[in-house]
Amino acid sequence: DAKTTQPTSMDCAEGRAANLPCNHSTISGNEYVYWYRQIHSQGPQYIIHGLKNNETNEMASLIITEDRKSSTLILPHATLRDTAVYYCIVRVVNTGNQFYFGTGTSLTVIP
Amino acid sequence: DADVTQTPRNRITKTGKRIMLECSQTKGHDRMYWYRQDPGLGLRLIYYSFDVKDINKGEISDGYSVSRQAQAKFSLSLESAIPNQTALYFCATSDMDRGKEKLFFGSGTQLSVL
User: Fold this and answer.
1) Are B42 and A45 within 8 A, CB to CB?
2) Strand ranges of the sheet holding B65-70, from the earlier edge strand across to the other edge
3) Which of A30, A85, B3, B107 could be A104's S-S partner, Cβ–Cβ 3.0 to 4.6 Å?
4) How far apart are CA A85 and CA A106, in angstroms?
5) Probe site for chain A from B101, B104, B111 (most A CB atoms < 10 A)
6) A50 interfaces chain B, CB cutoff of 8 Å
7) How far apart are the first and last CA of chain A?
8) Which residues have a Cβ under 8 Å from the Cβ of A10 and sit 6 or more positions away?
9) Largest Cα–Cα distance in chain A?
10) A43 touches chain B (CB under 8 A)
11) Residue B1 confidence (pLDDT) above 80
12) Average pLDDT of the segment spanning B90-108
């Protein structure tokens, strides 16, 4: 059930911030925004998630708009190892709802 | 993640053969999942299990079956493999930690059906 829209691909210069947008205009009040990434056919890796407040961890920052209809994942200083497909997912926590992965954004970090 | 182990890593088989993909985990998680990924596409959920007695179909369960032999083991079977089941298959586990649910994935099994 594709509830998110992401650009197909993006480029970012090494050392610069990578800002990956996601639209989720039909998000419900109890749905969280999750971000995962997949590096070249490896299993996806959890990055961050949030409900309505901005979140930051050692990997990235998540900025959610006040109306919650969109969000941005920020990798503050992109490295070549950040080249991957990034998936934005919305789902209700602690229920039977599952993680549905769309096609994501293919981020290429350029030297 | 070495805590979620998939076997085999690669498999080539012929149309009509029965195939089983194995997944085992040492994380102690109750929830386990099987996804498939086709080239250029995202992951699609095949089956999931919240505990040993709980099995649920995902969005693309037709042609597949699963078995949850124990908390640590979750197998995916293709009773009669067909070429469009050629894909990269991922097993995953998850648990709930103070409202946060993370998926942990295995390294994947590349299956080719000729």
Assistant:
1) no
2) B4-7, B19-25, B73-78, B65-70
3) A85
4) 4
5) B101
6) no
7) 36
8) A18, A20, A105, A106, A107, A108
9) 42
10) yes
11) no
12) 85
Helix (H) / strand (E) containing B70? strand B65-70
Residues in B lying within 8 Å of A, measured between beta carbons: 1, 4, 33, 35, 40-45, 48, 50, 56, 58-59, 88, 90, 92, 96, 99-108
- Summarize pLDDT for B13-66 with one digit per residue, the tens: 999 999 999 999 999 999 999 999 998 778 899 999 988 999 999 989 999 999
Q: B101 to chain A: nearest residue by CA?
A: A93
Identify the CA nearest to B55 among candidates B80, B74, B77: B74
pLDDT at A57 over 90: yes
Q: Specify the amino acid at residue B70.
A: A
The two tokens of residue B50 are: 């919240």
Closest CA to A85 of B86, B106, B37, B42: B42
